[in-house]
UniProtKB/TrEMBL annotation:
It comes from Candidatus Chloroploca asiatica. This is NADPH:quinone reductase. SUPFAM superfamilies: GroES-like (SSF50129), NAD(P)-binding Rossmann-fold domains (SSF51735). InterPro entries: ADH-like_C, ADH-like_N, ER, GroES-like_sf, NAD(P)-bd_dom_sf, QOR-like, Quin_OxRdtase/zeta-crystal_CS. One of its GO terms (molecular function) is quinone reductase (NADPH) activity. The keyword Zinc does not apply. Keywords: NADP, Oxidoreductase. Gene3D superfamilies: Medium-chain alcohol dehydrogenases, catalytic domain, NAD(P)-binding Rossmann-like Domain. The keyword Manganese does not apply. It comes from the Bacteria. GO terms for cellular component: cytosol. Residues 10-320 form the Enoyl reductase (ER) domain.
Amino acid sequence: MRAIHVHATGGPEVLQLVDITPPEPGPGQVRVHVAAIGLNFIDTYHRTGLYKLPLPFTPGMEFAGTIDALGAGVTGWTVGDRVATASGSGGYAEYALAPVERLVAVPAEVALNQAAAVMLQGMTAHYLVTSTYPLKSGETCLVHAAAGGVGLLLVQMAKAIGARVIGTVSTEAKAALARGAGADEVIFYTSEPFPQRVRELTDGRGVDVVYDSVGATTWEGSLDSLRPRGMMVTFGNASGPVPPVSPLVLSSKGSLFLTRPTLAHYIATSEELAWRAGDIFAWIGSGKLNVRIDRSYPLADAAAAHRALEGRETTGKVLILP
């Protein structure tokens, strides 16, 4: 099969297309004939070595397809079942492995490319608004990168709850997408001081919660946008990791709460995984949640896909197709 290998961490050029033998599923695993792979910033963190994996490796945790082979002890699944996961391994390939406890069935009304587009980003948006900071109707949230893959889903989910959404974007085209998803206010955070604008929009109070996937460049401004006892949720490093934090900063800015969540801890049980994926698939099937697939790249162009994501050229989801 064709797959992408990383032999040394670095820039997008380290993503090399190779021909290798398809992996054999071990106990408790299935092999998936991959239909679509979801591109995520965590893939770039693995590629650069920010999040370390043993070398060499094939990146890719999020993919959808059909079961091709069952490992020992696997029950409840059959060859040909349509499935998706956000916790697989070796996804940048024609065949990849996934543990059955991290697998979900894809209903007939959801296309496999849609499933690949929402497993990681969709469930991330879900846990952010339902669990990390459970948004309530009438509350106000600040969503950075509101036209990004998580951002567009997060805006829609927050609006469905009845929250007021202030989104930040970098271009007028992205502003249109954020407004189309339901954002009440849009701030161009690359050309105006967004904390000052947030204060103006909230009559000086600040927002109840900031959902920040950007990281280093928005960190201080995000803290300055919160109301007293508000929550700072930093869940990504698109502009680089957040610097070390003194707890006294949180005190001086209003006894703020700070958390750095990750999806794995919010789908730690099969019941929680089924709840989050089930909600998302149901919303897609009913038309309540719109999934924007911005562009797709063939497997051989995985490096170009990474460059586009890191260059902030994309809106919505990027897929890689084997």
